[in-house]
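Incident log entry.

Two folding requests arrived from the same account within the same minute. Monitoring flagged them as a possible duplicate submission, but the sequences differ. Recording both here for audit purposes.

Request one:
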Amino acid sequence: MAKKSLKTGARKTPGARSGKTGGATKGPESTVPAVAERIAGALEAIAAAMSSAAAKPDNSRALALADAFIWHPDGRLAPVPRVSRVDLDLLKGIDRLRDILIENTERFAKGLPANNALLWGARGMGKSSLVKAAHASVNAEVDGQLKLIEIHREDIESLPSLMEQLRSSEFRFIVFCDDLSFDGDDASYKSLKAVLEGGIEGRPGNVILYATSNRRHLLAREMIENERSTAINPGDAVEEKVSLSDRFGLWLGFHRCSQDEYLAMVRGYCVHFGIKLDDSELEREALEWSATRGSRSGRVAWQFTQELAGRLGVRLAKQTA
């Protein structure tokens, strides 16, 4: 009996090995949680993408509610109920530039060929004011079919997404970027180049781009010089960046105004808002104001007008009489 018992115990030894083998089979099973985690992560990513797509704002209805909008990179067009603008008649000293931009805008609004426009030059000379005034003037002629959309400089990379939304709209659009320029290693200008000309889709036929800048080539001079001095092929490096401004078909240069033009701006504002002051006194104070700021421009003229109106207790509301 003892021997039989020993044999039975001996027979159990393979069973122990079998148990170890069974333990080894748990290796593949241990990978199941990792696979499940990856699947769960993938499903969460898909769900997030679908949720994002579903939450994408529909701007088609909003476009009919206002004449001007601000573009946000999340895909939203925020209506601007009251645009900060001055009347076209108040823009003095830029008559030729005004006429060129108005004509270009009228052609575009009527569905005729027109150019993207770059308004560059001296600060405070009415570049952005002219864009907004031109839009208001032409939009009144086409029964509100011309919309103005402002895109901020830092959102330029989202410009292709905006073009995608506007392409199928029944309205026509001026996409406006104020104070456009690029510094350092900023490569977002490439998105603008593709939209202006050169991309597969290109600029939609119902969209035109107007930009203002203090720089003719939208780049700081030292950037251009650095490219020339450090690049292996200096000419190629400079051409790539300077070519951005070349893609605006219409260049309008704004230069510092003369004393007579500055005084004409001041007088125009005073007549427009009903500010009454002896002309010789007005001229003396206006010139003194410009001297303290070291410049003459439309902006300086407007700032002086605000100072004068406040001092005389005149509210800046257009005079109807």
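Request two (distinct sequence, not a duplicate):
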Amino acid sequence: MVSAPATVAFIGFGEVGQTFARGLRANGADGIRAFDRLFGQTEGQRLEAAAQSIGVNCAASAEALGLQARFVFSAVTADRTEAVAIEAARWLRPGHIFVDVNSAAPSTKQRAARAVEASGADYIEAAVMAPVLKPGIKVSILAGGPKAQSASEALNALGMNLTPVSDVVGRASAMKLCRSIVIKGLEALMVDCAAACEAWDVKDPVFASLNATFPSIDFQALAADMSERVATHGIRRAAEMREAAEMLAAAEVDPELARAIADAQQRGARSKGVAR
């Protein structure tokens, strides 16, 4: 049985892992450790430097994280969600709480949950509802699973903001991805609209017309903001929208629009320095 009351580990140490680790450490979490598959490689040096600056110990493997951790956060890319859960299930034990914060389809989370729970560990579905940089660990997170209530209480005591929404895995992710179809779709529309406006030098009249139709929205500011979001996070958001497409297909809803949004997000991403 894992007994450390507030010991936290991260599988994946990109933007989400670093942000959560920084906030949790500031709120009393002890002995935070992290593993990222880029550790030990040239491209992982900045991640290791970030860990050192936060006060997080770098582990040589994911398995090495579990020796003392109570909470194990999976904070990887959406396409790695299930694989990481299956790999972790080989060393997870009763007493571990596996917190899956990846933006994956409900069916992906359900498969991940089955793998983790077979080890005797508890699985918490965690749907992060907004970009994490500004709110930090106060970002809204919807939690699902049989132990969502107790895990949320423990993590909220460390400054997080989890809201249990269901004891059934899948519903929290469905809530997130249904919202994401709109948000990521609007971003893709605004990027293409702004690009066409620039090409034809019609930005001012077009945005003036949109502002007249929707007077509560500053479309010029919105276009600039959404273009930056896509440029910075497009690769990650494209993966999220492919998970949304899987969700739609499972519900027998045509997934082609979500796939097109994924393609648009990926096209708009910067080739370098894209946050994970």
